[in-house]
Specification:
Order of helices and strands: HHEHHHHHHHHHEH
Structural class: mainly alpha
Strand order of the largest sheet: 1-2
Distance between the termini: 44 Å
Oligomer: single chain
Largest sheet: 2 strands, antiparallel
Length: 276
């Protein structure tokens, strides 16, 4: 697939999803179960799939999950429709390698709207090539499971939509797919845009990352982005007592159940050394 083709697929796909979400305002298609389904699926796909698995486990190896748990959460992540694990992880690792500088796929230096959404559907020379994805995510690329998910994230979304339709009709499809995806997308994109623009900086980093409390509230703790860029390996992003990080609670629960180990967090000394 060429870069130009991918740009148009992203442009048309994102437009269709946002237009589809407008059906939530049609009175005849509304039922109170719809928002509940959206929140549940949002947590499963965004909170567990993207934040816990794609980001903190696969990208930065802040913890290790038992393989059946890792694979299950990776499938949840594909249902967030933000790309397969190899592309997501490779793109994010390239972002960290060139954060807010030349080579960053969604550099805030190019503008707020670029960092938020335009990087996905406009010509973007920093978007990783297939060769770069193999170089940035060799650990995933050697796995048959993750290579298979490169081709299954679309069919899996259709399977989810079919299941929701069978259980709750069009109301569940509209809320559980379209509305949920719009909310999930913008929560993720605000980490790239708002959390590189607004908020406070606790640690010295060579980029524009900030700690933005309201982004953290809607992104399962990802808004403590300056903390994250200071210590990318940390499974915990909210490093101070008031920094709300529900994904860290999930990590601790999985550890308690013996489903996660090798959990990394920065030492007190490392945090004091890196402070602004």
């Amino acid at each position: 697939m060429t870069d130009r083709t991918r740009e148009w697929i992203n442009r048309l796909g994102l437009s269709a999803i946002h237009i589809g979400a407008l059906a939530a305002f049609v009175p005849g298609l509304f039922h109170w179960s719809g928002p509940v389904v959206a929140l549940v699926v949002l947590w499963i796909t965004g909170g567990l799939g993207i934040t816990l698995c794609y980001h903190r486990t696969l990208t930065h190896r802040g913890l290790r999950l038992r393989k059946p748990v890792e694979y299950a959460l990776a499938i949840f992540g594909t249902l967030a429709l933000q790309g397969d694990p190899i592309r997501w992880v490779g793109t994010h690792r390239k972002h960290h390698a060139h954060s807010d500088s030349e080579g960053d796929p969604h550099s805030r230096q190019t503008g707020f709207r670029w960092a938020h959404i335009r990087w996905l559907y406009q010509p973007n020379e920093a978007m990783p090539t297939v060769e770069e994805l193999r170089r940035f995510a060799p650990d995933l690329y050697k796995s048959r499971f993750y290579r298979a998910l490169q081709y299954l994230h679309g069919p899996l979304q259709l399977l989810l939509a079919a299941g929701l339709f069978a259980l709750g009709g069009w109301t569940w499809v509209i809320w559980g797919v379209f509305v949920r995806l719009v909310v999930s997308y913008h929560a993720t994109w605000l980490v790239n845009s708002a959390a590189h623009s607004l908020g406070y900086r606790t640690y010295r980093t060579g980029d524009l990352s900030t700690n933005c409390w309201w982004v953290a509230l809607i992104s399962w703790g990802e808004g403590w982005h300056n903390n994250h860029h200071a210590f990318p390996y940390s499974a915990r992003h909210g490093l101070r007592w008031f920094e709300f990080d529900p994904t860290w609670w999930s990590v601790k629960l999985l550890a308690l159940l013996k489903l996660a180990d090798r959990i990394k967090i920065p030492s007190h000394r490392a945090q004091q050394t890196a402070r602004v």
